[in-house]
Sequence to fold (259 residues):
Amino acid sequence: MIDLLRGRLRELDRVAVAFSGGADSAFLAWVAHDTLGPDRVLAVTAISPSLAPEEAADCAALAEEWGLRWLPVTTDELARPGYVANGTDRCHHCKTELMDAVGPLAAAEGATVVLGVNVDDLGDHRPGQQAAGERGAVFPLVDAGFTKAAVRQASRELGLRTWDKPAAACLASRIPYGTPVTVTTLTGVGRAEATLHRLGFGQVRVRHHGEVARVEVELGDLAEVVARRDEVVAAVKAAGYRWVTLDLEGFRSGNLNPI
Fold:
């Protein structure tokens, strides 16, 4: 399967990887770099309030560790009314902003923008994929048949430390559709999750419901959250929430998406 990916990348010849530092984009960036070399691969990280600061820092760290040619660029999704309104097409506006920032960088190098979309992503509510595809982005992991599990397995075999990195979607995904996206809300969610990570909880979501934070962790961590509830409550309240709840269904990726 990885040979198919390498072949697809060679067809593209030059690529600009939208590099968020997650397992998928990290794997794609590493393989592209290893296949095409640094002169033909540019890893670009969009920096905005919707990207957790710890994720931006990890992108820089990964780029240094792997020798990636890396460029952080500032994006301003919050200047787009459609993004702020937070309708079900929010991701469309976000990816449009991303492509507006990365597209010219790729064009200057004669490169194609590539995203770390995998086969499993195709079945979810992902209007951002449509926006990126409409603007010329391609999805090499899909072309090569990679699922999320396959990405993690291949990453592990290659010795990439991102193989078991918890999923870390855009912070705006913690805000229910119809609730406006603001810097204050994004910052609060990011602070709460970062503190919970420091307490040792790996896969975490803090869903924003006004003054209420709905905390999601892996099912195996529920008992520990309850046992350490004073620490957890203090951490989340310090980020600006008045009430803290624990979701007994546990972590579910994209559970605020339309059913």
